[in-house]
Amino acid sequence: MEVVFDANLEMNPWINNDAEVVGMWVDHSITLTLATNHTFNYISPARTVSGTWTRDDYNLYLNGSNFAAAMRFVQFRDRYRLMAHPLERPPNMWNDLGFTRK
Alpha-carbon distance 71 to 86, whole Å? Predict the structure, then answer.
């Protein structure tokens, strides 16, 4: 099973351009919207933050007023996932892990 899981997971995906990651990303009750003008809106039950974003390969950097975060894109089963901290999880848990684009 681990071989199949590894074949479905790309920890360092090739992202051709920012258009591939622009849009709304959702993780349960948290929403992150990446706009084409490199601004973002992060909405969670605890807070709302806006600012600017940059991308370096598969790494995403968010910067706002009193807020900074580094995230990482991974690819699982040909779909990008956005992770605050990619974790090693059993394969059956990856279906509900990280932000997915809506």
Answer: 9
Determine the CATH number of domain 2-101.
2.40.128
Give residue 33's pLDDT. 98
Q: Is the overall model pTM greater than 0.90, yes or no?
A: no
57 pairs with which residues across the strands? none
Burial class (CB in 10 A: 0-12, 13-18, 19+), 57: exposed
Q: Residue 52 carries which side chain, given as an amino acid letter?
A: T
Please report the beta strands in 1-94, taking only residues with DSSP state E, as ranges in sequence order: 9-10, 23-27, 30-34, 39-43, 48-56, 59-64, 67-76, 79-83
